[in-house]
Amino acid sequence: MLQFVNVIVQLSLRRYQYVKPMLNNIGTPQYPIVLAHGLMGFDELRLAGKYLPGIQYWRGITEALRANGIEVITAHVPAAGSIEIRAAQLSENILEKAGGKSVNIIAGLDSRYMLSQMKPPNVKVLSLTTIATPHRGSSFADYMFDRIGPSRLPVIYRVLKAVGIETGAFSQLTRHYMQEDFNPRTPDREDVRYFSYGATVEPALWSAFRQSHRIIMRKEGPNDGLVSVNSSRWGGESGYKGTLVGVSHLDMINWTNRLRWLVWELTGHKRKSVPFNAIAFYLGVADMLAEEGY
Fold it and tell me: In 36-108, where does DSSP find H-type helix?
């Protein structure tokens, strides 16, 4: 079933109830999966306190995994904290919620740092899967820092901190930082398997990713609007599990897909292809982990 992910990405349907019959043979990992959100993410957002249901970052994904008998742990880390701060919080989350069990993590750079540098003694991680993670930085981050300039950057940071947004992560997304600082001092662990996925998209005229995609394309090649395929690759040839085609950075957490196709249909257009289904994709990642023995 190693080709499973590629098949379901190409054939996936809009809603999980339509996808579910296709996934009867999905493998169930032996160990829990920890989901940790990326930059500017959250586990649950409550805009009206207790009066309205919270908005889930992993909307529909955790439910689908659990419906297939997969134990899921969602971790909460600071939205824009530094890699080091996020890694410390992630370690505490796993220690608190995993109950001593070995786990598989689906996360990003904070997990790499936690595994390599912190090595928490009571947290046993078997594998780390990263999805469109900027392991080698992003040329769009380089572009933004160049445009802002060193004189204006402190002012912007003060404004962000005033509204409660941490800023430690932003400078850590540059290619120089990742390639010249972070990667050399953050080697992979030999007792952990590393898997990764990348994505490419051709943004529409109205896409928020159009400019960033163009900038990254010139410097790094195919990308998802924020992260290039080359930067996403991690874990060697056997660890890189494939490139999702026609998928933006936000599509991968199930936030943009439904809205995009609703607008497309309301404007009288017919679908030219089957849309990407994030739920089916994450079920495929779980199947891959089961296939690999985790």
Answer: 61-67, 83-97
